[in-house]
Amino acid sequence: MAQFAVRTTVPVDKSKAEIERLVSRYGATGFASGWQGPRAIIQFVCRGRHTRFTMELPDRTERRFTQKTTGYGARSETAAQALWDQACRQKWRALTPLVKAKLEAVDANIASFEEAFFADIVMPDGRTVYESAREPVAPAYASGRPVALLGAPQ
Fold first, then answer.
1. Which range of residues forms the domain containing residue 31?
2. Which residues, other chains included, contact 120 with Cβ-Cβ below 8 Å and sequence gap of 6+?
3. Can you say how many angstroms the Cα of residue 129 is from the centroid of all Cα atoms in its chain?
4. Number of domains observed in the structure of the chain
5. Residue 46 maps to a domain
6. Per-residue CA distances from 59 to 31, 37, 68 (Å)
């Protein structure tokens, strides 16, 4: 499967700054970004809602970074770092149009802010709506009773 922005040269910092400008332009009153271990996070406050996106960054020790694809042997540290940096740039470039599309949908009255960002809204306990609600989804589908495509009960 083709990946969006797999060959991007846009630095991570530029993508973060672009996201910050986007949310600000659409009325955000606060913005933060950071990382810890393998996770990168952006958070913002907009329309009275705290919103968070968390991305898993690739593991620097993955074989795709450390081992040559042709022949045998390890990549140099410099080559491995360059490939890892590229993978991180791709993740950030993919996040940018996601945030923009949701904001545009709200601005165009296609969806309310809550509809567009529902899974990403941070609840008072610090978990996103998705983190709070994900547990029952798999058992519901395992029970064999999914909802019909048009949302009507079967």
1. 12-59+87-142
2. 51, 52, 53, 128, 129, 130
3. 15
4. 1
5. yes
6. 26, 9, 16
| Residue 49 phi, psi (nearest 5) | -120, 135
Tokens of 65: 């970074």
**102 closest CA partner among 31, 19, 13:** 19
Angle of CA points 96, 101, 104, to nearest 5°: 125
- Confirm whether 79 is domain-assigned: no
Q: Is residue 5 part of a domain?
A: no
- Residues shown for the chain: 154
CA distance 111 to 42: 22
| H helix runs in the chain, sequence order | 12-25, 63-66, 77-107, 113-117, 129-133, 137-142
Chunked mean pLDDT (size 10), the chain, 154 residues: 77 95 97 94 96 95 88 87 93 95 97 96 95 83 72 56
**What is the model's pTM?**
0.84
Distances (CA, A) of 144 to 40, 147, 149, 150, 153: 35, 10, 14, 17, 13
- 150 is a domain residue: no
